[in-house]
Amino acid sequence: MTPFSAGESRPLTTLPVLACDCHMHVFDSTRMPVAGAVVTPPTASIDDYRKLQARLGSSRHVLVQPSTYGTDNSLMVSVLERNRDTARGIAVVDESVTDAELDLLNDAGVVGIRFNQVQAGATRLEMLQALAARISRLGWHIQLHLTGEQLVEAAQPLLALDIPIVLDHYARIYHVPGIASEVGKNLLRLMESGRVWLKLSAPYLSSQSDQPPYPDLAQTVATLCQRFSDRLVWGTDWPHATEEDKPDDAKMVDWLSDLMPSPELRLRVFADNAAELYRFQGD
């Protein structure tokens, strides 16, 4: 049985060698008790996650600091330190972080920082410019989880940042159908800048469907693959902390793969783009 994932079958898709899951989390409800967090899932360990990797056929992964732990990145770092060759991390910091602390995170395998404004609390968008300047020397990027409304409002400030930007979860484009057109226009505007990447992760957070197929996302994915194939990466969002009914990760892999017309495109999205963005080259 694969913890926190529906179904037991392997995907029909054979993922490429060095496929990278670019969005997953770990939780430890015993070691890291929390109070007042919006999302408080049960323990989901790296050993639990390995069972998903074996089922899907992926080998690399990116640990994303969840909103649950705020700016306490210690659990994520402890996992990174044991998996340095195959894992990278995205931390959460605020303006109080010191350069020495950033250097320690970098040494552990962190390659970016996250602003989660959907489950907000630890960071504010007003911190973007100052923190972007602080992390640029490390070659890091900024990852953002935004509502559609927030993406529309933040598009211009994001374009002004001289640093790579990564948008979570298909930019939640169809989460609120009434503004999907406006979100889509701003997403394309950001992608056309050449500095913005998009995570093809957690389609259930962006679609009006909670399981494959996601008909509202299909044409969007086709357009993105045609125009921005070098800046798309894949992720599971395991352990799907926001979802009471866990999705079938294998079916989501197959759905996404079926939207890609060539093996070369699948290689880019599932493996090669992640190697570049998360600095796996040469490992």
Automatic annotation (TrEMBL):
The lineage of its organism: Bacteria, Pseudomonadati, Pseudomonadota, Betaproteobacteria, Burkholderiales. Residues 20-280 form the Amidohydrolase-related domain. It holds the Pfam family Amidohydro_2. It comes from Paraburkholderia caribensis. It comes from the Bacteria. Coiled coil: none annotated. InterPro entries: Amidohydro-rel, Aro_Compnd_Degr_Hydrolases, Metal_Hydrolase. This is Amidohydrolase family protein.
